[in-house]
Structure formats: C-alpha cells, structure tokens
Write a structure and sequence with these properties.
The protein is an all-alpha fold. Helices cover about 85% and strands about 0% of the residues. The protein has one domain. Helix 14 packs antiparallel against helix 15. The protein starts with 13 loop residues before the first helix and ends with a helix.
Length: about 450
Amino acid sequence: MSQIQENKMGVMPVGRLLANMAIPMMISMLVQAFYNVVDSIFVAWLSEDALTAVSLAFPLQNLCIAVGSGTAVGMNAVLSRSLGEKNQDMVDRSANTGIFLFVCSAVVFALVGAFLSRPFFMAQTTDAAIVEYGTDYISVCLMFSFGIFGQFCFERILQSTGRTGLAMITQLIGAVINIILDPILIFGLFGLPALGVKGAAVATVTGQIAACIVALIFDLKMNPEVRIRLSMIRWDKEVGTEIYSVGLPSIVMQSIGSVMTFGLNKILIVFSTTATAVFGVYFKLQSFIFMPIFGLNNGMVPIISYNYGAAKPERVKKTVILTICTSMTIMALGTVLLETAPGFLLSLFDASEEMLQIGVPALRIIATHLFLAGFCIIAGSVCQAIGSPVYSLITSVCRQLVVLLPAAWLLAKSGVLTMVWFAFPIAELASLILSAFFLTKTMKKANASMADRLN
C-alpha cells in the first residue's frame, strides 16, 4: 500500500475547514440555482404551456441528476475514506472506476433521450403544444447528458481532495455560459435563429460540457493526489461494488423524487395545467434555498468520510453538529422569504392571475416544511458518508412514497387544490422522526468502530 501525506481534512480546525470546503460549493450552487431559475423565467416568457412542459420534464431530468449525483456520492465517499486511510492505490482506482461508471450512465441516458422523450410526455398530457415543447427540451438535455455526468465526476474528484475552490470555478463557468446563452438561443438574438424551449436546453448542455472540460483539466494539472489514467478507466468489481454500496441508495432516493414528482403532476393536472406550472415554479424557487444546503452537504461529506477513515471521532462529531446548525439556519431564512414574498417571486415567471391565486397559498404552505428539511438532509448524508446509506433510503421512501404521495392523493379528494400542498409538511414530519432515529443509531455505530480502531 503506497502512502500519502495527511490532508487538510484531518488537521485543519473543523469550523474553518467546513467553511473552507463548503462556502465555495454553496456559492457555486447558488449560481447554479440562479441559472435554473433564469432558464425557467425565459421559458415562461414564451408561454405558460412552455413553462408547464419544462415542469413536466422535471422527473426525467431529475432521474438523470439522481444517477449522476448518487454515483458521485459513492465515489466521493470511497475516495475520501481512502485518502484518510492513506491508501493511494484505492484512491486512484476509485477515481478511474468512477469515470467509467459515468461514461456508461451517459450512454444510457442518451438512448433514453433519443427514443423515450415523446412517450414520456404523452403519458402525462394530451396537450399537443406541451408535448412538443417538452420533447424538444428533454431530448436535448438527455442526449447530451455526458456534459453533466462529466461535470459530476470531475468536480467531485476535486472536492474529495479538498479543492472546492477549483470545483467552484468550474461550476461558475458552466452557469455563466448557460445564463449568457439562454436569451440568445431562446429568442434568437444577434441574428441567430430563435430556438424557443430547445434553445434553453442547448444553453444548458453547452454550459455543462464546458464545466466538464474545465474540471477535467484541473484534475489532470492541479490535483496530484488523484492520478487519472486512461488504462485504469474500466470496470473494477471491488471498487464499483463499494461505490454503489454507498451511491445506490442515493440514486434510489433521488429517483424516488422523480416518481413522487411524476405522481404529483398527475394529481395536480386534474385541477389544471396551471397547478402543475406552479409546482414547477416552486421547484425552481426552492433551489435557491436547497442548493446552498447541498453545497454545505458536499463540503461536509468528504470531511466526515476522511476523519471516519482516519478514526478521529471528535472531528466527525463537530462537523455533524456544525453542519446541521448551519443548514437549519439557512432553511429558516428560506422560510421567511417564501412566506413574505410569494407574489413577487411568482411574478418573476410572468404569472397569470390564475397562477397567482394558486401559487401564493401554495408557496406559503409548502414553506412550513423547510426548517425540518434542513435537519433531515444533513442527517441522511451523514448516514451515507459513514457507511449506513440504507437508513437514508428508508427515510426517503417513507417520506415521498409512503406519506407524501398518498397524503396528496387523499387531500385532492376534497376537491380543494390548496389542501394538496399540506402533503409537504405532513411528509417532512415523518421524515424528521426517522432521520433523528437513524442519525443517532449511525453515530453510535461509527463511534464504536472508530474506538475499536484506536485501541
């Protein structure tokens, strides 16, 4: 086993380390959230049907993100733990096997985009305009998904070794390119043809591909702790199994989100297509609140994985407590924003009077669950980072499939659309109970494991 030197994740004071790791990721994810919202704002200016189509595309788009993000979580955890154990061979195998898995995922989703985009929309609506808009959008996003998969892969390798500043730069580059290209390609500025909804998709994938290329260059030139070798980019059963033992529950959890969104869209569209557009707008707006949490989360995971691998229980405990407190504070601020300015936020999407009537109470009701979600998100990631991913999976299944969807369906039976939104806080309460139980159990097990290794 070749040796590597102690990384900053094992020695830097926890508060400063978490800030050092998380703040760049939080900034870059806020920028990503901004371009996601800008994307939908420009699309909304085309028509409400175009906005509805992008909203209905979310489950399939989210499935793509779920596979990329979940695989990245697994690779990140294995790579960071190997760094903590000072096992250079495993570090390199983790990175190169991860690259292979991302390539395979991109091929699969390219085929889905080419052949299943239209059937996916026809399963949700018979409105021809929405089907056309949606097919144009999602087919481009999926057929060129190698950009987002590469971005996930190479940015997470940077994060795993503590180089979150470089990862932030790559994400900012992708976001800025997307924001610049959006109005140019959607509306046909500077003599270019107006591509409409397809232009939004082209802008998105162009930004992702650019970020992927920059992240790869950073890994090759500025990340000596990980060696990427073409000859090593292949299937490694041992490493692949370990990556997916951590990452698969994350993939399933986020995929469940796609099932939940698809099901809820089916419930809402019975009331009106505007209701599904409001739901889509909520997901875009919530990204401003959730993306910083995910950035914080991404900064936390390698710290916990590294110090768990290095058997440093006090550093693990301090990181968990500090991250949970920070997350819940951010979520509290997000709750205030949605409760006090729902009308203004909806007006950014050129909201009709009907959308405002539906959306204002919807945002206020849904916002009540955000504070609890701050704890639940971090608790689930802690379980994943130190080897108990099934707990996160159980919590996610119960929240979204066992509680949220059935609650929404039952509340819809009242015939009052506003009642449906109460399914969100109801589901989050169930998630809170499970998250607290599983986090306590995981930390006890982790402390016992680290104590054994220290003795």
